[in-house]
Amino acid sequence: MALLTIATILLPPIGLVMLWSRRDTETGKKVFASLAIVVLCASYFYFAYSSGFLRGPEPDMEAHYGELERQRAQQRELGTGAVASSTPGQQAQSPASTPTNANESKPTPIAAASRSTRTYWTDFRGPVRDGRYDETPIQTAWPAEGLRLLWKQPIGGGYASFVVAEGVAFTIEQRRRQEVVAAYDVETGRELWTHASDAEFIESMGGDGPRATPTWEAGRLYALGAEGDLRCFDAKTGKLNWSKNILKDAGASNLTWGMAGAPLIVDDKVVVLPGGRSGKSIVAYNKLTGAQVWKSLNDMQAYVSPMLVTLAGKRQILVVTSNRVVGLGPEDGALLWESSWNTDMGINCSQPIIIDANRFFISSGYGKGAALVEITGSGDGLTARKVWENTSMKNKFNSSVLYEGNVYGLDEGILTCVDVKTGERKWKSGRYGYGQVILASGHLIIISDTGELALVKATPDKHTEVAKFSAIEGKTWNYPAIAEGRLLVRNQTQMACFDLSGK
Q: Which of 159, 452, 488, 501 has the greatest number of CB atoms lying within 10 Å of its CB?
């Protein structure tokens, strides 16, 4: 018995084998002891993971921030105008010119382009938050050495993606003990303006820094920090228009992994998800002033961004909370319909996909699976039903895309194709870890969780990988962004831009 106890404490799996090999122990006691050993093993795993032992070495952020600051200083020295950052309430000054970016990589030299006037990828995962790029055809014959690199440079921490408007890419990042909203010239990577606020979200299992991607609309940028700081800027100058903390305003506690839902612009409102239990789970503010317009529901929130959709002929806001999917009226936040969607610990992270006029696809990891949900009825009398539900697709903290009747996504890290009408899995092949997938020109652009970019044909016949190359180094959970044939990628320490146009 002493040997069994020692083995159980030091190596729970061996203790479990030894327990069941004993013939003098009653079955009931074996079952009870087995549960205790499993709990002990899970506890060991949790502490090992949270300490970083199982995740591998984390980047030396102190050294990284020093490198970032030196690189930005070098940019300023090469330019004729200063790149200024601002503190809350102060206006950031734009540089007078935009020189070619200097960095340690060897990008292809390009000429500084005149500022674009196009506004396409202005929202999280694209124009309608579905991960689909249709602005221009992309290059689908990638060179063996990879896409043409335009620039590559350090960036602050966090898991936000980029939005792009008028030739400028915007994101939010962690720099030391501040959350920094930053604007970059797409063609050169030059930092145009920054705005910093004192905020530092620290989380040992997932990682530190802000999560939510900013939103650009009509010359304004809306950025939400991991601890609930919502800020509205003039996108050209970085001037702060207004700010407020949505968690404090709703009397809500933060989520375990921080605020992650990108702000949604609907008409004259900006909609966010603080998760307050006093009827403030979902809140709409006036987009120009920050004044509260309406509040709705009592749900604990999840990590999914709200979406503006039309289902059953009704324009509505689609929200995935910690235990259900709901449709809300944009004017007043009134509940139009609901469909249960319970997952382990309320962890929902993936964006739904609108399939047709009445149906949407939803998926979650942690053993949950996927479903096709249909909304029927008219006016305010809408109801939801699940057409099918199974475990053919389990998106953990990534989202799928739709192409010609099939859904493509990472099922716990393995690329999978599912017939969206039936839920039948067509194939499952190709390991990309917990990376991200977007769709362009009939192909899947995948950034793996180790920073590799892959191009895969979006076909239900089989998994066909066209190309793959290393784009950035380190843990990469951030979504890519595409605008005007430029592919932007980032992670906790690096950002890069590649030419997808093939010109």
A: 159
